[in-house]
Amino acid sequence: MFPQFEKLPSPIFIMHEEKLVSNLEKMAYVQVKAGVKIILALKGFSMYSTFPIVRKYLFGSTASSLHEAKLGHEEFGGETHVYSPAYREDEFDELMTYADYYSFNSLNQFHKFSPRLFAKKPAAKAGLRINPEYSTVTTDLYNPCIPGSRLGIRAEDLPENLPDGISFFHSHNLCESDSFALEETLKSIEKLFGKYLPKLKKLNLGGGHLMTREGYDIDHLINTLLAFKKRHPHLELILEPGSAVAWQTGYLSSTVLDIVSSKGINVAILDCSISAHMPDVIEMPYKPKVLNASDPVIGKPTYRLGGQTCLAGDFVGDYSFEKPLHIGDKVVFDDMMHYTMVKTTTFNGINLPHIGIWKQNNEFDLVKSFGYSDFKSRL
Ligand SMILES: Cc1ncc(COP(=O)(O)O)c(C=O)c1O
């Protein structure tokens, strides 16, 4: 029975397939009930060994770059969407061999690339990323609507008539948000961009819809989408979440290499790195959940969990355990599948975590292990 972390190589990102399927079933329910299309944002989750499962539920993938578009085209199939703040001249021809939907971040970019796009790929669709000027995101790092944002065109900067060839708008302003934030976003889009909507065929509502989080009001999401569709029946709606697909579907399991004491603080040094393997913990910042551990409790064995690099700040915070930790014990970080996995580095030359899947049939599949060549090939 899962989890048997002691038997797995370390450190390892381990996907719990049953949890992924459970998320996908919820998302498929939303698609059917609300009549929308959901595609996977590869920037949030790119573990392509799971794509044979994910593609049974979702319509396709969306990319932020040439390489993600290639991965989506090769490994996911279905519709391949792409958005980049600015496409590169030297990559666009190759990009056109992979993507079907192109979201442009400015009219400049649209005018520069769309003639080539429509000449080579007449069936391709082109759209504009808009800035809905509404966001509930409180961290500027994740808020595309801050003043001076380079992401998306403001309504005041659009001409009275859209140029020919634009068939959709693309809005992304949410991050781990609820359906009420989406409801307000839709109001803002209608208020600022309402006059353009009758001329479009699709509206892509970006990511950030955390419909697989416990407590998310899925019925409200469905009703919000249905109400919008009633007002704009000609528009096909697309959602492109990343986090929601892999939300709480797996772990980063590590091993205690040493325990040192510093001014009365016990520090467990793990065989992973917070900085190299979980950079969002430092960047966001946030304190991840550790299995069988809690925030510090007086009287319980308490440790600061630190990584294997020499960065002084390569630690995650203090946790209490039921029993004292020993060298060789496992320390397992929860919810490490979205973003964490795609953001790893080999800082300090430390090895990347293995990647594995705990399958629905209870078998463990070691998908990938890394080594010196992965480190060296990047330098
Ligand atoms: C344009 C766009 N679409 C989709 C996403 C996915 O968002 P999330 O993983 O929060 O659902 C992002 C995330 O930054 C994004 O920038």
The fraction of residues in strands falls at 15-25%
Bound molecules: pyridoxal-5'-phosphate
Helix content: 25-40%
The biggest sheet, with number of strands, parallel, antiparallel or mixed sense and barrel status, is: 9 strands, mixed
Query: Rg, please?
Result: 22 Å
Structural class: alpha/beta
Q: What would you call the shape?
A: elongated
Distance between termini?
A: 41 Å
Number of E-state strands: 18
Average residue-wise pLDDT: 96
The arrangement of helices and strands along the chain is EHEEHEHEHEHEEHEHEHEEHHEEEEEEH
The number of helices is: 11
Low-confidence stretches: none
Would you write up a description of this structure?
With 379 residues, the protein is of the alpha/beta class. Helices cover 27% and strands 23% of the residues. It has eleven helices and 18 strands. Strands 1, 11, 12, 13, 14, 15, 16, 17 and 18 form a nine-stranded mixed beta sheet that branches. Strand 9, helix 7 and strand 10 form a beta-alpha-beta unit. Helix 6 runs parallel beside helix 7. It binds pyridoxal-5'-phosphate. The site of pyridoxal-5'-phosphate has 14 residues, from helix 8.
